[in-house]
Specification:
Chain lengths: ~210, ~210
C-alpha cells in the first residue's frame, strides 16, 4: 500500500490558507501523512464565477465575519495575526517562487515564511522587495531565484496547477484532496488527514 | 451571573442547519448552556446580496462540494441524510409554525421533526400536507395550529426575526450568537458553546 498522502491546495492571499499552512506540518507528521503543497491562484477561479475580487470584499457581512473569525481562530491556536492591507494581496510572484522551491528542497519553508510575512508581520507580499527579503532569510540568492521563478516553465506550471484546481472542483482555499475526496476549508484539515489514512472508511457517494 | 445561553439561528431549507439542529440539544445540555431557537428566512438576506436562490445552486462547484460534504458529515455523526428535492424548499410555513411553537412548549420538538421530514425522510416541507403530518405526530391539532401560525402577529414576528438576523450581520445558516459574538456554520457550534460559557475568554476585537 502506498504511504498515505494529502494534497494541500492553498493561495497566498487567503487568510484561512495561512492558518492551515501553519497547522498542517505538525498534524500530518503526527498522523504519518505526506503532504504535497500545491499553490494555486484563486483569481481565475473567482473570475469564472463572475467575481473580480475576494468574496469577502464583495459581500461585506461575510467579510466582517471572516476577519473576526480568523482572529478568534488564531487566538485559539496561538498564532499571530494582522489584517493584511491591501486585501487580497497579489500572490503571483510568491506562488511562482513557491512552485520553484517545492520542486527543490526549500519550498515548504518558503511558503510558511511568506504566509508569516503577510499575516503575522503585516508585509505586502505583492511587493517584490518582500519576496526578496524572505528569500534572503532562507539563504537563497534572490536575483537568480526570481529569474528562475519567472521563467516560462514555472509560469506554465502555475497556470497548469490553477487549471488542475479548477478540474478538481476547487472553489476556495485552502482545499485538501485525499483518496479522491475534496475537502474545503481549514476546518476540514483533520477530516482530510483521517481520509488520507483510512481511505475506504468514507461513505460511498450517493447516486445523484 | 446569568445562566449561559446561546442563540441558534437556523433556516429550515438549510442542510447544515439540519446537522446543527440534530446536534445542538445534547451538546448544549452537556455544557449547561440554554439554547434559544431562532428560525429565520435566508431568502431576503440572499436577495439583499443579489441572489435569487441558494448560492449552492448559483455556484455549481460549491454546490457539488456541499452535497458530498453534508453526506460525509452525516455519516460521521450517524445521522440519516437524503438530498431534498426540490432544493431549497419553501420554509415559510414551517418557520411560522416553529415560531408559534417556540413561544409555547412544543417548538423544539417540532423543529427537529420538520428537519427530519426534509433531510432524513425526503419529504417536501413546502407542502402544507407535510407540516400537517408533523403536527399530527406531535399531537397538535393541525387546523387550529396552522390558523394561529398564519395570524398577523406570527407573520410580523417572523419578519422581525429575519430583520434582526440581518442587523446581527447574519449571512448564512446556521449561525450562533453568544456573548455578543457571531459564529457561522455547524462547524462553529462547539466554539460558540465555549463562548457562551466563558464569554470574556474571547480575544478583544481588533480596531479596524
Amino acid at each position: 500500500m502506498a504511504a498515505p498522502s494529502l494534497q494541500f491546495w492553498f493561495e497566498f492571499a487567503s487568510t484561512y490558507s495561512y492558518v492551515a499552512a501553519m497547522r498542517i506540518g505538525a498534524l500530518a507528521a503526527k498522523e504519518s501523512v505526506t503532504v504535497e503543497w500545491r499553490p494555486f491562484l484563486l483569481g481565475p477561479i473567482f473570475k469564472a464565477q463572475g467575481w473580480d475580487t475576494s468574496p469577502f470584499n464583495l459581500y461585506p457581512a461575510k467579510g466582517r465575519y471572516m476577519w473576526r473569525d480568523v482572529e478568534r481562530q488564531c487566538t485559539e491556536l496561538g498564532l499571530p495575526f494582522r489584517r493584511p492591507d491591501p486585501f487580497p494581496q497579489s500572490s503571483l510572484m510568491a506562488s511562482r517562487v513557491a512552485l520553484l522551491g517545492l520542486g527543490e528542497s526549500w519550498g515548504e519553508e518558503f511558503c510558511r515564511a511568506m504566509f508569516r510575512a503577510e499575516f503575522a508581520d503585516g508585509r505586502n507580499i505583492g511587493e517584490p522587495a518582500v519576496v526578496v527579503e524572505v528569500l534572503r532569510a532562507l539563504d537563497m540568492a534572490p536575483e537568480p531565484t526570481l529569474a528562475r521563478a519567472q521563467g516560462d516553465d514555472i509560469k506554465a506550471s502555475l497556470r497548469a496547477q490553477t487549471e488542475e484546481a479548477q478540474r478538481l472542483g476547487l472553489f476556495g482555499a485552502p482545499s485538501f484532496v485525499a483518496d479522491g475526496e475534496l475537502f474545503w476549508g481549514n476546518d476540514r484539515l483533520e477530516q482530510a488527514l483521517r481520509c488520507a489514512q483510512l481511505g475506504s472508511s468514507m461513505p460511498a457517494r450517493m447516486s445523484s
